[in-house]
Write a structure and sequence with these properties.
Blueprint (H helix, E strand, L loop, with lengths): L1 H27 L2 H7 L4 H7 L3 H17 L13 H11 L3 H13 L8 H23 L9 H21 L6 H12 L9
Length: 196
């Protein structure tokens, strides 16, 4: 019972952290602000997460678990089917707070001293490998446009993340799921929306 309550409290802290980071960015988010949002003292928060960096990594890891159902996206076992990637983009369009938090942290992580830099570097290595496996399973060693799965995987990841930024800045003008479907059509050589 105590363990279940602790896990529940931990999940509540992670949700509050997402909100605070989405509002203020990582550097502007404080442990005090997160603690206040969940009705804890800062010392009480530190009982669950000993540092701000530990809290940040837990938020990022949870976000990946939500997106992949526990898969890290690397290698053949982590491969998604392209249709499922489209579903993930649609799902992301329904949860702007999580997308905003991820995007803010990703943008901040390019600085040398950012605590999430290692996480994102490792994540992108794994995600590119997973996307290459997805593309290889779908097309073999060469996509219709002539690219290898590894070269196309870099573009696929760039489109997914770039669409998130554009959508966050102007959600009325950017149809994130529709634009991703258009990109899948280009990958398939159709030049338009996703082919059946």
């Amino acid at each position: 019972m105590a363990r279940a309550r602790s896990e529940e409290r931990r999940a509540e802290i992670l949700r509050a952290t997402l909100e605070v980071i989405a509002e203020r960015g990582y550097r502007g988010a404080t442990l005090g602000a997160v603690a206040e949002r969940v009705g804890l003292t800062q010392q009480g928060l530190l009982h669950h997460f000993p540092t701000k960096e530990a809290l940040l990594v837990a938020v990022l890891e949870d976000r990946d678990r939500w997106d992949t159902g526990g898969s890290r996206g690397g290698g053949e076992e982590g491969a998604w089917r392209l249709e499922l990637l489209g579903s993930l983009v649609e799902y992301n369009a329904m949860r702007p707070v999580i997308v905003r938090t991820f995007s803010a942290l990703l943008g901040e992580s390019v600085t040398e001293d950012h605590p999430a830099r290692e996480f994102f570097t490792r994540r992108y290595t794994q995600v590119r490998a997973g996307m290459a496996a997805t593309l290889r399973a779908e097309y073999g060693d060469t996509l219709p446009g002539g690219l290898s799965p590894e070269r196309a995987a870099v573009l696929l990841v760039a489109v997914m993340d770039g669409l998130q930024y554009q959508w966050l800045l102007d959600p009325e003008a950017v149809d994130m799921p529709g634009a991703f479907g258009d990109f899948l059509g280009l990958l398939r050589g159709a030049g338009g929306p996703e082919a059946p």
